[in-house]
Amino acid sequence: TLLAPLHFVAMASTSSSFSSRASRAPGASRSSVGRGRIGTRCASSTSSSSSRGVQSKDVNSSAAASELAFMSVDGTNNLPANQMANNAPAAATWTDRFGDAPRKGCDVLVQALEREGVNTLFAYPGGASMEIHQALTRSDSIRNILCRHEQGEVFAAEGYAKTTGNVGVCIATSGPGATNLVTGLADAMLDSVPMVAITGQVPRRMIGTDAFQETPIVEISRPITKHNYLVMHVEDIPRIIREAFFLASSGRPGPVLVDIPKDIQQTMTVPTWDVPLQLRGYFRRQPAPPTRADAESILDAIEQAKAPVMYVGGGCVDCGAEVTKFAKALGIPVVQTLMGLGSYPLTDEELSLGMLGMHGTVYANYAVDQADLLLAFGVRFDDRVTGKLEAFANRATIVHVDVDPAEISKNKYAHVPVCAEVGQTLRLMNQMLDSNFKHLKREAAEADGRGYGDWREDVAEKKKEFPMQYPEPKEEEIYPQWAIEQVWEATNGNAVVSTGVGQHQMFAAQYYKFNAPRKWLTSGGLGSMGFGLPAALGAQAALQDMGLADSVPVIDFDGDGSFVMNCQELATVCVEKLPVKMVILNNQHLGMVVQWEDRFYEKNRAHTYLGKSEGAWHDTANPDDIYPDMVMMAKSFGVPARRVFKRSEMREAIDEMLAHDGPFLLDVMVPHIAHVLPMIPGGGSYKDSITDGDGNTRFE
Fold it and tell me: Which residue, among 63, 59, 4, has the nearest Cα to 242 in the 3D structure?
């Protein structure tokens, strides 16, 4: 999505309040930009000049955003030429179908969305939003995908945004419709997803009277949105929508909520489109572009290091080419967070160490533990990555580059803090390396006895000692790790992959080798079960808008527990003809909780079995005891489906699924005793890594 040319003028801030992160660093002050403090150790964030604007992304160019979205990490642009040609700024070519005539506020809203370049949105109608839906029927450029639940639509908007890098849009009615968006808003906040959520509200005169389907969604959502608005004047709609899109996509992205009373939607007006934004305080708090001094401080640390590691997170998904160029130029091993997967090619056997953290590879966690320099790019030192904080990278000098000043030294002290956009910082350093800065490039460094050859060999030995592996199956038994590998091979690693939350999510992160960013959609920070199918349908809609639907499949790896939470979206993929492929790794249990029960609760099952009480399929081997019947469920929604029990059937079933011209569900029966390994228990460190055992093992 793109914005019309912005007028950066000095005006008073809007009356609506920005949220603040609940967990700010000690001593951090509340900031009006909603992401904590302006870091005292941020090398590039000392000036308060509003002329700096927002440095993280050129939101005036959807061509730039779309080019980022499906650019492979070697810099190759995978977008077809006609798609690039269609990415001209929408407002510049937009025509007002009403001319100078008055129109309803709801029409102004829809036209404002058109001017932002919105092609697809996800909206479910209700009493307080039906005026908006009527207006949508008068638009010839916006497609609404009718999800069957508001949580489905907000996750679909996330999937759309994560796939494209553009702002995802969802619309719900007041009351329960609005509150059904809350989980998705929190999810987008924690995973830094650009989103604009629009809610209908009761008429202004009824606000605060406990009217039918009235909820104070602005107050409810304030802690879990980057910003929110209650529109009280119809003439404010054009400005507020422009501000919402700008806020959602600039700096550290996040969700913005716009609440519009029904009488505002019905009010007649002639809109003024080119209204200046009222975000002076926000502009002033954006970090400056990185300076040469910033880059030199990082490169100087690299020059002194003997065992450096790049720690790459979700802040790098728009600069994969720069990440790859930097790592290869210096020969530095790379570890990636769950949210950063694909920012560096996972198939690079020399430098890629895969995912780090609780379920990361042993060798990735070893490298961080032994490193003398940790290059943290676009990360937040999440507890699932660090484990025992004081033991994490405790030998290393830490360089931390992030666009959000609140993250710098929040959890782990940064010896070299750079508060700037990661892509710009890497681009500057790559330019300096190309100019032979201190002869740091790998070839020059190794030619005169410098470089990191010994360090890479050390890590490679650990990789040989602790390879990623899983138990040999019994006869035809299907292990979930193997099933994911089979799908990876069948798709040539080219799919956009979504997941629910649980064991299947971690298995997908470990065994589907992503070679490009924005092909991995998962709920990381919040861990929202039910995310997989709605996110997948949002991704499928995005690929259709980008002209890539015929060449890039969308796979939802899901667990039976997670899938059921939003299984109603089977209706959406059928009716909307969205060819999402669903692979259910069905173990009849809440697998991740079962794993913890096995390890730490003496295998006592506390409501983690999801099947029928009369007979468990894993005990009886009777297909009639599988519950619920995913195949029958899918077929009842008009979606073809198939169940697989044996390894020998798996590849043929995958080929059938991929060849089908439409949505397809593959129900893969897997053992409930499988454990996600490696594993570092919560609060543990690298030394506490668990590398063997499953549900059949007796744990003392």
Answer: 4
Who's near 397: CB < 8 A, 6+ residues apart?
Answer: 301, 305, 372, 373, 374, 415, 416
pTM over 0.85: yes
Closest listed residue to residue 199, CA positions, set 145, 137, 275, 126? 126
50, 8 contact by CB (below 8 A)? yes
How many whole angstroms separate alpha carbon 508 and alpha carbon 499? 8
Which residues are part of the catalytic machinery?
150, 212-213, 262, 592
Cβ atoms within 10 Å, residue 10? 11
| Contact of 36 with 28, CB cutoff 8 Å | yes
Contact 222, 17 (CB under 8 A): yes
Contacts of 475 (CB under 8 A, 6+ apart): none
Pairing relationship of beta strands 168-172 and 195-201 according to DSSP bridges: parallel
DSSP state letters, 588-623: SB-HHHHHHHHHHSTT--SS-B-S-SS--HHHH--G
53, with CB counted inside 10 A (0-12, 13-18, 19+), is middle
The 10s digit of each residue's pLDDT in 32-59 is: 333 332 233 343 333 333 222 332 333 3
Task: Match 């005990």 to its residue by tokens.
Answer: 619
For 589, phi and psi rounded to 5 degrees? -140, 165
Nearest to 664 by CA among 616, 693, 631, 691: 631
Strand order from edge to edge, sheet including 195-201: 143-145, 120-123, 168-172, 195-201, 255-261, 227-230
Distance CA 265, CA 550 (A): 38
* Residue-wise pLDDT tens digits, 142-201: 999 999 999 999 999 999 999 999 999 999 999 999 999 999 999 999 999 999 999 999
